[in-house]
From TrEMBL:
Residues bearing the modification N6-(pyridoxal phosphate)lysine: 207
Pfam families xref list: Beta_elim_lyase (PF01212)
Classification via InterPro entries: ArAA_b-elim_lyase/Thr_aldolase, Low_specificity_L-TA-like, PyrdxlP-dep_Trfase, PyrdxlP-dep_Trfase_major, PyrdxlP-dep_Trfase_small
Keyword Signal appears in the UniProt entry: no
Cofactor: pyridoxal 5'-phosphate
GO molecular function annotation: L-allo-threonine aldolase activity
Natural source organism: Paspalum notatum var. saurae
Name recorded for this polypeptide: low-specificity L-threonine aldolase
Length: 372
């Protein structure tokens, strides 16, 4: 008998629905590297329309989407990109922009709401007169929603302001929009409006939207032409990719409407965690599908808490040495949320009593990266 597992590690853990599997089985496909896959073409056109851009390109992962985008804008080695010090590109993507592209990251502190101070962005732009000594600034990157800042949403007005700065200094603006649909639903603003100021956007399909694989990059036709070459260079050119695009199309069609419910459940989860005195939770700051909480009792560590939860079939990941992150997705029910809260309360009791025998568990909660 299969035991129910409540998997709160990330919104990347969803399984393909029956509708996705059926679409994959029936997909009309051809060789996408040769530009001939009809399902990929239709899906890319749909994503370009949704985001208000000229063209789109399907790629295997969000990390590759961001890397391609940065390399396309910073096509001269020694270029510099301005980005948040807690951004996914800077922290969790293997330093790829530097190791692969020779692009230098210049970080600006992220505020708790995921923004960077506009004045700090301006101050970080290199003066062209210093080209003998300094890298050349060519790009600014934003992240919406901002994962390390608790899934916070960047407003269209803030993004417009950064876009104006970029344009005034002859720079490009890229948005890591891995969860841009979450931001759109939470803010009540269409995706195309949130990314209007951006020259390029990456959109992850396998997070809250629930597709099994993939991301898309959107931008101008000229930008996508460059991106297509870089995708091939990086090994991301696939053949009958329409099989994956078919599932992604179903994900966008069926699951955007479920994101508001994810956000509601995350708020419920945060309110429940707030009642546990060994934790501190700012439930008012929960804007989308992520809940972060700090553990204030020295007898409990995130590592141990996640181990005990796993013994009860609740999966989670430490977010730091003092905090844990839970992520809601559409395959988490209201009853799953209540079960998770009950398990957290019991796990805290056990850890405080010191009666729990901790074993080495193998599902990945201990080894996992925090960057998903």
């Amino acid at each position: 008998m299969v035991t129910k597992v409540v998997d709160l590690r990330s919104d990347t853990v969803t399984k393909p629905t029956d509708a996705m599997r059926a679409a994959m089985a029936k997909a009309d496909v051809d060789d996408d590297v040769l530009g001939a896959d009809p399902t990929a073409q239709r899906f890319e056109a749909e994503m370009a329309a949704i985001t208000g851009k000229e063209a789109a390109l399907f790629v295997p992962s969000g990390t590759m989407a961001n890397l391609i985008s940065v390399l396309a804008h910073c096509d001269v080695r020694g270029s510099e990109v301005i980005l948040g010090d807690a951004s996914h590109i800077h922290v969790y993507e293997n330093g790829g922009i530097a190791t692969v592209g020779g692009v230098h990251p210049r970080t600006v502190p992220n505020n708790p709401d995921g923004t960077m101070d506009v004045d700090s962005i301006v101050a970080a732009i290199r003066n062209p007169d210093g080209a003998l000594l300094y890298p050349t600034t060519r790009l600014i990157c934003l992240e919406n929603t901002h994962a390390n800042c608790g899934g916070k949403c960047l407003s269209a007005e803030y993004t417009d302001k950064v876009g104006e700065i970029a344009k005034a200094h002859g720079l490009k603006l890229h948005i890591d929009g891995a969860r841009i649909f979450n931001a759109s639903v939470a803010l009540g603003v269409p995706v195309h409006r949130l990314v209007k100021a951006a020259d390029s956007v990456s959109v992850c399909l396998s997070k809250g939207l629930g597709a099994p694989v993939g991301s898309v990059i959107v931008g101008s036709r000229a930008f996508i032409d460059k991106a297509k070459i870089l995708r091939k260079t990086l090994g991301g050119g696939m053949r009958q990719v329409g099989v994956l695009c078919a599932a992604a199309y179903v994900a966008v069609r069926d699951n955007v409407g479920k994101l508001a419910d994810d956000h509601r459940k995350a708020k419920t989860l945060a309110e429940g965690l707030k009642r546990i005195k060994q934790f501190t939770v700012d439930s008012d700051s929960v804007e989308t599908n992520m809940v972060f909480f700090d553990i204030v009792d020295p007898c409990i560590s995130p590592h141990k808490l996640c181990q005990v939860l796993e013994q009860r079939n609740v999966l989670a990941m430490p977010a730091s040495s003092k905090s844990v992150r839970f992520v809601i997705h559409y395959q988490i029910s209201d009853s799953d949320v209540q079960y998770a809260l009950t398990c957290v309360e019991k796990a805290v009791e056990e850890l405080l009593k010191g009666v729990t025998k901790l074993e080495h568990l193998t599902n990945g909660t201990i080894k996992s990266s925090y960057g998903h």
